[in-house]
Input
Amino acid sequence: MKNIIKEIEDNVGKDSKDGGKDIIAYINREDGNEKVYVECKLYKTTELNKETVRAFGYTVNNDNINRGVLFCTGYVNEDIRNMDTKIQIWTLEEIIILLNAHEKV
Output
């Protein structure tokens, strides 16, 4: 598990001109297909700010995407989590819990 997190940290930390999305996920559901943008932020000492969430939300809405997921290794306050209902924000701790929950025994 630690190797996965280290690999994510190594790859996400690189600057790129991706237009506000690092991953585009396509999910087939019983009620239809869903397209999800994922943005990854590697912050060691910085907290996620409203401008970053607002810009990502603009990209999600402008591209007519179902929802966005923002993975952030830095601090996230509750006000930012509730800014946009189409944007889910996951902290590093939550990502680790999610990965551990799906780890094969």
Observations:
- The first helix runs from residue 2 to 12.
- Residues 20 and 58 are 9 Å apart (CA to CA).
- The radius of gyration is 14 Å.
